What does this fold into?
Amino acid sequence: MATRKIITQENEILRKISKPIKNFDEDLWELLDDMKETLEKSNGVGLACPQVGVLKRAFVISLNNAYFEVINPKIVKTSGKNVAQEGCLSIPNVYEEIERPNVVTIDFEDRYGNPMSITATDFMARAFCHENDHLNGILFIDYLKNKPFKK
Ligand code: CO
It folds into this structure.
């Protein structure tokens, strides 16, 4: 395993649409292992492939002593609303209140291509939505009316 460099806001890779993963092979597993290590080292909640410069539809989440590898996610159901503070490893030192669904159901695949599904609530739902957005080139600051800017 190795850590990978997390790219930041100004890098246009973060604005691109990621491609579905078709090969559940050792290259994918190495990527996922590296992302886990990178997430642990940075004390983050979630990390999506585009954040390490790879335009593939996968992300990892570490929250409440649970760890998820989420490949080819599809949000199939959302309900409710929840407003809470949110940040992003690619936008250091910016935290803003963002509205997200309170409950979200996501279908996805695991690292072997097995179909999986999870229904998450509250902050876990927020994390899944935030990371899923990364695969579509969306950053959380896009939801703000008054966008913060860094010096
Ligand atoms: Co993020």
User: Anything to note?
Assistant: Residues 88-90, 130, 134 surround cobalt (II) ion (CB under 6 Å). The first helix runs from residue 26 to 42. The mean pLDDT is 95.
